[in-house]
Design brief:
Elements lengths: L2 E5 L2 E4 L4 E8 L7 E7 L6 E6 L6 E3 L7 E6 L4 E6 L8 E8 L12 E2 L3 E6 L1
Parallel strand pairs: 2-11
Antiparallel strand pairs: 1-3, 3-8, 4-5, 4-9, 5-6, 7-8, 9-10, 9-11
């Protein structure tokens, strides 16, 4: 069983940056693909980014491509999401998730989820 805990959310002005962290415990972190998802009020959860177990492969939603960067440090059991040039539309609760299976952008393919961290971008 893997436990995930996100941190780093907060309030930022449009154009600003935040770095989210997700610390994993209770499993072999390096064997999991990791993803970030987000859910805005009144909207469905959406895929943001994912990274392979080694960090060698990444993939982004079109809405964040070029602005967000996902990375991981397997020695620290942590995955990161660097968010630059933030927009009000990026306001959401951000969740990290771990998948035992192949890389995927589908939330249903992820096995473990964190509790989420709120990101609010003011205009």
């Amino acid at each position: 069983q893997v436990q995930l805990a996100e941190s780093g959310g907060g309030l930022v002005q449009a154009g600003g940056s935040l770095r989210l962290s997700c610390a994993a415990s209770g499993g072999t972190f390096s064997s999991y693909a990791m993803g970030w998802f987000r859910q805005a009020p009144g909207k469905e959860r959406e895929f943001v980014a994912r990274i392979s177990w080694s960090g060698g492969s990444t993939y982004y939603a079109d809405s964040v491509k070029g602005r967000f960067t996902i990375s991981r440090d397997n020695a620290k059991n942590t995955v990161y999401l660097q968010m630059n040039s933030l927009k009000p539309d990026d306001t959401a609760v951000y969740y990290c998730a771990a998948a035992r299976g192949p890389l995927s952008y589908r939330g249903s393919n992820y096995d473990y989820w964190g509790q989420g961290t709120q990101v609010t971008v003011s205009s």
